[in-house]
Amino acid sequence: MSDVLLLNFTYEPLGIVDLARAVRMLFARKVEIVHRGDREIRTTSVAFPLPSVVRLLYFVKRHRKKVALTKKNVLLRDKYTCAYCGTHSGREMTVDHVIPRSRGGRSVWENLVASCSTCNARKGDRTPDEARMPLRRVPREPRFIPWVVVRRHTAPDEWVKYLALYSVGIEERVS
Ligand SMILES: [Zn+2]
Fold first, then answer.
1. DSSP string, 101-115
2. Rounded to whole angstroms, how far apart are CA atoms 147 and 163?
3. What is the distance in A from the centroid of ligand 1 to the CA of 74?
4. How is the chain split into domains, by residue range?
5. Ligand 1 ion: nearby residues, β-carbon < 5 Å
6. If we measure between CA atoms, which residue out of 149, 83, 140 comes closest to residue 116?
7. What is the DSSP letter of 153?
8. What are phi and psi of 174, to 5 degrees?
9. pTM above 0.85, yes or no
């Protein structure tokens, strides 16, 4: 893997940059190496370790994008965990309208939750009150695109602790 995880001054992940850019930033003294990768550049006299995680030496303000309202992003926001029973599952997870569409419920962040297919079928065309299936959390619009969650499975080990921190951040901001 030739990608490098770029962290903000605060250690919040900002994105993934290619190695060439990371090395340029290093030489420009814009970043420091937080974690060295396995590989190195060798010249005849010196070996220079290549970074896997770098951190900016100054703080950049993240520009916030609107998160697209898609089924996948609702599932990501909810971490593939059923809003009714708490089951966690990558597959079999559906998106449920809390107030059913047939009852005037709209397709908005605040009315959509991840739901396992069992709960979704059980709830049917009822509200949580009617079905006696209270929500385990209040759905809100997320403020960040949780892109790192998507990448997480393919990320090197040393990235994971920063990405995990970031995920916690998302959850805090969501609730
Ligand atoms: Zn469920």
1. GGGT--SSGGGEEEE
2. 10
3. 15
4. 1-63, 64-155
5. 82, 84-85, 87, 116, 119
6. 83
7. G
8. -70, -40
9. no
Do 96 and 83 form a contact (C-beta atoms < 8 A)?
yes
Give, in words, the CATH class of 64-155.
mainly alpha
- CA 114, CA 116: separation in Å to the nearest integer? 7
Which residues touch 111 (CB under 8 Å, ≥6 apart)? Answer: 97, 98, 99, 105, 139
Cα dihedral sign, 18-23-24-28? positive
pLDDT digits (tens, 9 = 90+) for 97-130: 999 999 999 999 999 999 999 999 999 999 999 9
Distance 92 CA to ligand 1 centre (A): 10
Q: How far is the CA of 71 from the centre of ligand 1 (A)?
A: 16
Question: Which residues face 53 on adjacent strands?
Answer: 5, 35
